[in-house]
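Write out this protein's structure.
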Amino acid sequence: MTPAELSRTVLHAVRRAVDEDALRASVPARVRVERTRPGGSGDYACAVALQLAGDAGLPALEVARILRERVAAEPGIGRVEVTGPGFLSFTLDAPATGDRAVLDAVREQGSAYGHGDALRDEELRLHHAPEVRAAVTADAVRRLLAAQGARVRVGCEEGPGDVEWSRLGVTVDAYGTTPAAVTVIRPVPAHATAAELLERLGADAVRWGLLRPASHDRAPLGDDLLVQGEANPLFRVRYAYARTRALTRGAAALGFTSAPDAAPYEDAARPLLVLLADHPGVLLAAARHRAPDRVARQLEAVAHAFFDFHDSCPPLPSGDEKPSAAHRSRLALAEAAGTVLAGGLSLLGISAPEHL
């Protein structure tokens, strides 16, 4: 079950409760579900009971219990809990067919997994300040929108003042004052030129440093972006990708290849599978909100889940162990994670080297 399907399932439960007169409240147009935060319960959480409590004239906990009864038996729902002041927390079933569908989609679409045509009818104009962070952000937003089918042109208020933008992969279609009916890209400035940043950090680290923070936050651009260690998120993401490629090479040397349906996945694989299933929705939301930082955070989460999975369920046999069906399934999941990491980095304009 995808987050969109879960949202519709909860909304259907609300309608049922209202139709059955268990709740006397207006049915919302949509219900928002979110990934559970670290330390929380379940896979997803929803605050719809708190939203409806006032209208229904009932405590949020009571509203949550009413909805829980109507959601718990739905296909794809493993467990529903009421937590805190009235949140619904969902643990999803993950049948092998669902896992296979996600991994097949990643294999079929490759680095374009998560691209779509939801914005195919939109013709958009972006305009940004003559400043390096604004230019790089506008370029990343263009890539995200184009990946969802939109036609995009990018303009700059002045220019071309910083001739080093091209070394960061930035292109500008037009220069001049801000026209009407455009989206203005104006993040907190980097307070440095492209040339200064490129000399110190290189293109990949500069782009990550500029894009990883939300546009309203300052962009930290210290030398820690070059550190090859777990504390550096960019290194961790790229190292996760490089590790997935090394696994494929290692498997070939041992004479086996991946197969997503060779064996059921262990519980330790579940967080990674959920993140891969969520990936198309994350890319679409990042495009709609003009927020490339969402993609960066998604890649960090995928890398973290990949290493947890890798350490708990090694895709390669060790010692005298022979390759098994479980190893073939694990390798398929690792390769899918690598594909998603490479595709996400590409949308941010960052390379994904196979060796680090």
